[in-house]
Amino acid sequence: MDTEVRKKSLGEKLRKLRDERDLSLRELAALADTDYSQIHRIEIGQISPTAITLENLAEALKVKPCVFFDC
């Protein structure tokens, strides 16, 4: 799978999980201890998150990190 496709897929999963929990970008950012603009850039497939950022996002969303990778 192409890197750009992977970034887009991960971002779409993140956005879906955030929307399901009715969280704004700023609310999720506060819970995950990251900047809301970074989350936005992940969601639109502009950047790839670090492993630590993924762990923080997963913890904030109350899911396992592998959910971003079709576990």
Largest sheet: none
Q: What is the typical, i.e. mean, pLDDT?
A: 95
SS field, number of helical segments: 4
What pattern of helices and strands is seen along the backbone?
Answer: HHHH
What portion of residues is helical? 55-70%
**Rg, alpha carbons:** 11 Å
Structural class: mainly alpha
- How many extended strands? 0
Coarse shape: globular
* Strand residue percentage: under 5%
Unreliable segments of 5+ consecutive residues: none
Distance between the termini: 16 Å
Overview of the structural elements:
This protein has 71 residues and is mainly α. Helices cover 63% and strands 0% of the residues. It is built from 4 helices and no strands. It has helices at 3-20, 25-32, 36-43, 51-61. The mean pLDDT is 95.
Features:
single chain, 71 residues, mainly alpha, 4 helices
Q: What's the quick description here?
A:
The protein is mostly helical and 71 residues long. Helix 2 packs across helix 3 and helix 2 packs across helix 4. The chain is globular, with a radius of gyration of 11 Å.
Q: Secondary-structure blueprint of this entry?
A:
Blueprint: H1 3-20, H2 25-32, H3 36-43, H4 51-61
Helix pairs in contact: 2-3, 2-4
